[in-house]
Input
Amino acid sequence: MKELAKSNPQDFSVQATNYSQNVNIEVLGNIANRQAYDAATGEFEPNYETRPCQLFPRCFLIDPDTPTATETFNSRLNSFQWFEVTSSGEKVVFPVDSNGGVLDGYDVDKDGIYKGMLYVKSNGKVGTRRTMKFIGIWKDPLSGYVYRFEDTKPLGVEDATTARPEIALDSPASCPWNPLRQTSAQTITATVVCGKKVVTEDAKCKIWWVRVLDDGSKEAITDGDTDGSIEIASITKGKNGQITSITIDRNLIGDSISYEAYAVYKAEGTLPASYKDTDARATTTITRLIPALTASYLGATTRVASGVHQVQCTAMVSDNQGAIPEDTWKELIKCKWEFITKTINTKGEATENATLIGYGNRIWVPVEQYKFLRLTLIDRENYLAIVDDNGNYLIDDDGNILIERALIN
Output
């Protein structure tokens, strides 16, 4: 074979294209990147756990010679990353390990035309801003130049709670207490509801209890009230540390006592230090009330004392429900016995005269006075705390406040 000509050796190079780049994170589908949270129902709309939000970082390399022929470049990316950015810092979403793992609550498309697509499967939090950051890398094999695609997309959560929290006490607003028929212990329990959801022990709920004093001023009830207040026997707290109920001894409330309970519920979890008069409120006033009673007595036995025949009279107490056992009323009622006579003046006007015989549940009286006997029932009233000259409570050796009934004998 005969060679006719041969060129001289020369360098050969390919001129790399100087691309322009662009990336834009798009929300694909009809699931928006903003959520609404209703604290009353505890629901998100949309709920990313059932309907993920799809974020597609559409990447472009624009050839300046043919800008109209630009196509989505994602399938040719060498690598990509997703990050979750909050006030707490930046957290890797993908890849979380060398095997290409994805952070819980997310998923990604790792190949194909939708390479880099992020599926947000976790709901956000009210008051916590969450931003998703994408970084994609492509290295031009001709020039060796590395193109970096970076963009961010915020995910918002709005508090759409419309229901106002309501608080209720299981003690009515006006609660009469009959010590002859009802026990002295009463537990008052608060329930807080927001919409249809009971939130009493929710961490986002706060409850205040106050005692309303006789002059209208209010006194906060706290953990220490089991030591410093004579009527509060115990306090119960919920999982959130809030007082959910108080147990009182109604023997120690005087004539009456009033309580108020206030509540707030904040979806964002920022709870105030104190309540406002406009906050949800429930009240109860417990009043000691002995209904109308019937006083009667029986002459059970007789005796002769100093030559006088006497009858033992035993007091009987009853109300509209029937007879009340003596063991029930003897601490609450004092029995007064009197001998009643009547005189009539010249005008025919009668005057009643009462001679005190004595006090007690039983009494001996002369036979001739038996039919002229009157029994009067006197309320011994509720217990009172004993104080010194300076108004300080007196206590026993065990630290208990000393109490006694207003009418002792």
